[in-house]
Amino acid sequence: MIDYWKMDHWLLLVLINGCIRACADKNLNQTKDPHRSIIRESDFESLIDWSTSFNDKGEKMKRIVKKEDYIQSLKDLHHMVYYNGKRVEDVTGHPALRPHINAAALTYELALRPEYEELMTATSHLTGKKINRFTHIHQSVDDLIKKVQMLRLIAHETGTCFQRCVGFDGLNAVYMTTYDVDQKYKKGYFERLKQYLIHIQESNAMVVGGMTDPKGDRSLPPTKQSDPDLFTHVVERRPDGIVIRGAKAHQTGAVNSHEILIMPTQAMREDERDYALVCALPLNAPGVILIFGRQTNEERKFEEGIDIGNPEFGLVGGEALVVFEDVFVPWERVFLCGEYDMAGILVERFATLHRQNYGGCKGGVSDILIGASALAAEFQGTANASHIKDKLADMIHLAETIYAGSVACSAMGYKTPSGAYYPDPLLANTTKHNVTRHIYEIARLAHDIAGGIIATMPFQGDLESSEVGHYVKKYLAGAKDVPVETRMKILRLIENMSGGTALAESMHGAGSPQTQKVMYGRLGNLEQKKRWAKRLVGID
Ligand code: SF4
Cβ contacts of residue 65 below 8 Å, gap of 6+? Predict the structure, then answer.
């Protein structure tokens, strides 16, 4: 790989000019496409390349507009991704990774559809240009609500996690916190962050928000771990930047992102300054290694057809362990370094912003599961049974309850000193906490309605077998005129969406339930509640 931080300036200019010309040609062609109708004249201005990210050919990243650009950008990235012990040369061609890429690609594709323009795009408060909402800093309560509506919309299209929200929330959390840090320490982080944000908005790059450290022995702080790298930290400070080491775990969408925004995993103390770190890296930076996590029914991704369940978009986000092996970060990309007292508020803000989402995306995913359950009942002739109607009503109630929580915390959001808007943290935590329970109940009801067949159904290969296929068709027949293949597709979709990895993700994504309970202790105002109770009965 080239040393992308030290390229000659003349070479950079040549590459930038070439990139601008190539992008201009490409976008001129795009304007002929009717689906590109929201690409405006002003988009040509965005071809001014703010990028400081490079692929390993030394080419600057181009602006990603449509799905195909996104796929090509991942091919060009040549980052170090491992799957089951082997290096993946092209993530876009790997059957286990491609479904997650397809889901994230919709965050680009839907932004080009006129009917979704209001939800999927926003106006940058920094440049005044139209940008993808996933790169926006919330400027109003309306922005917060639109975010939730957008997530439910995309969930309806994918039936799974589309991953891009993590970086979106990271950018917003870091934006409001660097402002506060600079009010206190005057380090210039906020202005740096704004320049980085312009780069992300202009390139339309996908950012993964890297918060969760491996943490080793949870009873010990970072400095007392047997291995100091179990928390990501600074190992060297240089005139031109810092060197970091460590890892981030469970990183949703990391293998198909372009950048990682590293944040501290928890509040830090004075002796933990080296762990109070916020910085951004291109994922193809030397020393960054991504190891993809195994999912439930992982092997089915290598098949085609019915047994996969959700063939195009897969199962939840696709998580990876991201390792930083002495990675250099120039100061321009460092947004917190040693200001340990600000780590806690940053973590709290990121968590709140991501917990705000869960009634949106999980509400949308639940809608699919409810629809699939209703179809399963129809296909087996139980749709008119009163207990089935009752269970479907319960599922809708639970899905709308989590969605209502996301809308409520957004509606009760407020402006922070940075100008960015922030959802009500107590309500956002409550929303996520409800998701850790309601998704399990929705899945339980789906299993109840669909029946044990989701766990015992034969393979697609049996259905198509010349020897036993006729038995499968005979004995898996349901309601009249419903092909067995149709019934099997819906049952496999329910299996895909309601078991294993999908449930664990709802429990622990955006923080485990106990972290929400910690927030109730902080924000729940128990003392005030006691005062109200005492006042009613006349206790001093
Ligand atoms: Fe976005 Fe939901 Fe996936 Fe989180 S779980 S990244 S909020 S789609």
Answer: 27, 30, 36, 39, 43, 108, 112, 204
The protein residue whose alpha carbon is closest to atom 7 in ligand 1 is: 357
- Dihedral of CA atoms 244, 166, 315, 366 in degrees, nearest 10, equals 160
Chain CA centroid to CA 489, Å: 27
Can you name the residues that pair with 88 across neighbouring β-strands? Answer: 81
Task: Give me the sign of the Cα torsion angle 184, 193, 259, 52.
Answer: negative
Pairwise CA distance, residues 338 & 344, whole Å: 13
Cα 283 from Cα 134, distance rounded (Å): 18
Residues catalogued as catalytic: 161, 165, 252, 319, 354, 358, 361, 505
How far is the CA of 152 from the CAs of 170, 357, 473, in angstroms? 20, 9, 36
For atom 5 of ligand 1, the residue with the nearest CA is 161
Cα 151 to averaged position of ligand 1 atoms, centre (Å)? 8
Q: 165: Cβ below 6 Å to ligand 1?
A: yes
Distance between CA atoms of 490 and 476, rounded to whole angstroms?
13
Residue that is written with structure tokens 């935590």 in the block: 429
What are the φ and ψ backbone dihedral angles of 28, each rounded to 5 degrees? -60, -40
pLDDT digits (tens, 9 = 90+) for 338-388: 999 999 999 999 999 999 999 999 999 999 999 999 999 999 999 999 999
pTM: 0.88
